[in-house]
Amino acid sequence: MTEVTGGSWTEELASLVEETGIRYTLDGIESTPKVESRVSEFSAVDRSDEESESLKDQLKGFVKAWGELLLGLARGCWDIVRQNLLTEESYIVRKVRGPMANASRRLRFLNDYFLPEDKDPIQAWQVIFFVFTLALAVIYVTTERDTSVPLVKKVYIHPPSASRILLPDGRHMAYCDRGVPARRARFSLIAPHSFLSSRLAGIPGVKVSLLEEFGVRLVTYDLPGFGESDPHPERNLNSSAQDMLFLANAVGIIDKFWVLAYSSGAIHAWAALRYIPNRIAGAALFAPMINPYERSMTKEEKYTIWENWVKRRKLMYFLARRFPYFLSYFYHQSFLSGKHGQIEKTLCLSLGKRDKALIEEPIFEEFWHRDVEESIRQGNAKPYIEEAVLQVSNWGFSLVDLRVRRRCEGNGFLSWLMSIYSQGKCELAGFLGPIHIWQGADDKVVPPSMTDYIARILPGVNLHKLSDEGHFSYFFFCEECHRQVFSTLFETPQGPDNTVVIDHTIGGIEEVSEIANE
């Protein structure tokens, strides 16, 4: 037999397990210093964890506990309502059961297209409506929290500062006079402004020294309801031409004057050429707008015009033509909201390369904000709705009416035959003065196809096509461009007119004296 050596059974048991620092004796269990050190370490860690727990974690736990409590309360309330009010014998169920069954039966056709056959349309569409509402809420919150959007400037309404005239119907019209004085002007320009603009626009960035060099007087005015002009109760393009005529007479323009218009302001220039042609010396139009629903346009011309516009702009034209009262909502959400917006979003524009570079310039932004602030001074959407409707509705005339043609007295075949042999009394009809149009090739607001249509209808127009230019880049803040325009219209600059007529009225004789500049 082998000899068994070693100590007691307690020592053999201890050899089989890891040393834990605990010794088992006949008297009981003893803890060694190693155990005591481990206990102290664990207690220290617990204390550090308790100290590291932040106030944020405590708030999270408090909110979570309250959420669970409220959820349980809501479930309990729902169980009470379901057990007492939504039973088969309750008054509410008996009253609602019939109408709900009828509605569900009528909506059964939805199961053929959208819903499974075993789903009740009433319950399913409640879920769809809830999910749709939740999605809109998420989109709204996401938009509100978008920090990448730059800060928006608020609109500031400046104190009134315009000169005003009194029109025959009692309305006041605000205007601005620049350039040489009336008595020394060789040429007078009257400029109606475009949509969402004011009398402050005129020719943006034109220098007074350039106006004086060519002897030009530039008169701009606020359309009815814009800026400081009173609204017109029943305005149309005929009344617009009459307002322009009254303004010319009130500010002392005796002879013929030129009409200058840009973009959508051109509709008022067309009206002046149609209704007061005897007072118009000529027209200078920059990217002129016409009615996009003009009936005399071919399908190809309409397509090439409409394809350049963004969907929102097309929607605005459609609403202006069919449902103009809906425009008020969109206008109050954009430029009448009290905040400045980006021009391409406010006016629903698609811009070319040069236009995008121009609108980023501080001088353009400053001009744009000031012009919009003056335009929306009255805070009323009605003038803008009227202006939008005028653009797309029946003008009361067509551009064909401006074409130069012979008009003879009388009707019928005999009058026509006599006009051929110059035996009848005939005269030229239409607008006889010059019409100059400047059009940018990269203009996406008033596409070149629109001015091509004008040139087809009015063969006598002088069309100046500008390569690489956009809607704003040629007309805004370009001194060289302005000089080219004036040179085209008025040829060599001659300065202010120094010839002044002085009526001495001695014996019914008028003397004309010439005053030289010093």
Keywords, separated by commas or semicolons:
disordered N terminus, alpha/beta, disordered C terminus, eight-stranded mixed β-sheet, 518 residues, two-stranded antiparallel ribbon, elongated, 18 helices, 15% strand
Structural description of this entry:
Mean pLDDT is 82; it is low at 1-6, 34-46, 145-149 and 502-518. β11 (435-440), α17 and β12 (462-466) form a beta-alpha-beta unit. It is elongated, with a radius of gyration of 41 Å. The chain has helices at 9-16, 33-52, 55-84, 91-106, 121-144, 208-213, 237-250, 266-275, 299-306, 311-322, 327-333, 343-346, 353-359, 362-375, 382-392, 413-420, 448-457, 479-490; strands spanning 22-25, 28-31, 163-166, 172-179, 187-192, 216-221, 257-262, 280-286, 405-408, 426-429, 435-440, 462-466, 499-506, 509-514. The strands form four sheets. Strands 3-4-6-5-7-8-11-12 form an eight-stranded mixed sheet. Strands 1-2 form a two-stranded antiparallel sheet. It starts with 8 loop residues before the first helix and ends with a strand. The protein is an alpha/beta fold and 518 residues long.
In round numbers, the mean pLDDT is 82
**Into which percent range does the helicity of residues fall?**
40-55%
Show unreliable segments.
Answer: 1-6, 34-46, 145-149, 502-518
Q: State Rg.
A: 41 Å
Structural class: alpha/beta
Instruction: Characterize the biggest β-sheet.
Output: 8 strands, mixed
Number of distinct beta strands: 14
Tell me the overall shape: elongated
Strand content: 15-25%
Please state how the strands of the largest beta sheet are arranged side by side.
3-4-6-5-7-8-11-12
Euclidean distance between termini CA atoms: 147 Å
